[in-house]
Amino acid sequence: MNNSIYPCLWFDGKAKEAADFYISVFENGKICADTPMVSIFELHGKKFMGLNGGPMFTINPSISMFVTCTDDAEIEKYWNRLTEGGMVMMPLDKYPWAEKYGWVKDKYGMTWQLMIGDLSQVSQKINTAFLFSNKQFGKAKEAIDLYISIFPNSTAHHQELYKEGEGQPVGYLKFGHFTLNGELFAAMDGPGDHAFEFGEGLSIVVDCDTQEQIDHYWNALTSDGGKESQCGWLKDKFGVSWQIVPTILGKLMSDPEKSPRVMQAFMKMKKFDIEALLNA
After folding, report:
1. Would you state the pLDDT for residue 1?
2. Which segments of the chain belong to CATH 3.10.180.10?
3. pTM, whole model, 2 decimals?
4. What value, to the nearest 5°, has the Cα angle with vertex 63 and ends 60 and 64?
5. How confident is the model at residue 120 (pLDDT cuts 50, 70, 90)?
6. What is the distance between the alpha carbons of residues 236 and 220, in angstroms, rounded to a whole number?
7. What is the pLDDT of residues 90-107, one digit of tens each?
8. Alpha-carbon distance 66 to 86, whole Å?
9. Which segments of 181-274 are extended strands (E)?
């Protein structure tokens, strides 16, 4: 993992509290940076951003975290903590595809899929999982193909497709893994009616060292039906929210003298302009 692509979880003032909770649950974690607006933390080496964005958006199950556990003791330890004040979406049990699996929404609204599996087969203990449902149902493979065409060092791995007689359209994605610039992701098509869609509550951050990288990702992800938003935010053609962010932004915002001008500058931007930020 090079951690240049990572999830951003939207909270209403509880980013640091949630980060501390997740570190206590998974134990192998740390706070990397903390401000009133943002908490950056890691769990088992995977980077997360917690954003105190206010009540405007909330996390939903369209994007969850998939956790590979090694045995009963580990999965039950995580399950018992994550269900405290949360809601069970799929009970922790044996399923046709797993010896033990469960899906839970924790007390902060984040959803976690826990499964006993072989960690050597997935290379990353915690990965971000997309559920393509409702009007996006059937588009998981298309999305994977688009994403791996945009990002370097990206590959589609094992993909299990629906077959004849399984009750879903043949060729739709039952489950698949892929890497984007070395970061592992999962995706699946979700049949049935779901009361949620991709949104700003959970976005994917892409750190960029150069303006060329920002331009490339911005143009590629907003093409063919994507939508530009403010302050480096965009939605791709599937409705997934992305933040295309210059890596230097954190340094600029930590400068007490410069940060007010930098913030004033980027609040006027859609796509980030590194030179304009440096000159603010």
Report:
1. 63
2. 5-190, 209-278
3. 0.96
4. 90
5. confident
6. 9
7. 999 999 989 999 999 999
8. 17
9. 183-190, 202-208, 227-228, 233-235, 241-246
Domain made up of 209-278: CATH architecture: Roll (3.10)
Q: Which fold has domain 5-190?
A: 2,3-Dihydroxybiphenyl 1,2-Dioxygenase; domain 1 (3.10.180)
Helix then strand then coil, in percent of the chain rounded to 5, is 25, 40, 35
Q: How many CB atoms lie within 10 A of CB 68?
A: 23
| The residue type at 138 | G
Instruction: Write the CA distances from 15 to 12, 42, 120, 145, 170, integer angstroms.
Output: 8, 13, 31, 33, 41
Q: What is the pLDDT of residues 34-74, one digit of tens each?
A: 988 999 999 999 999 999 999 999 999 999 999 999 999 99
Q: In the block, which residue shows the tokens 């909330």? A: 58
Q: Where would I find the H helices in 156-243?
A: 211-222
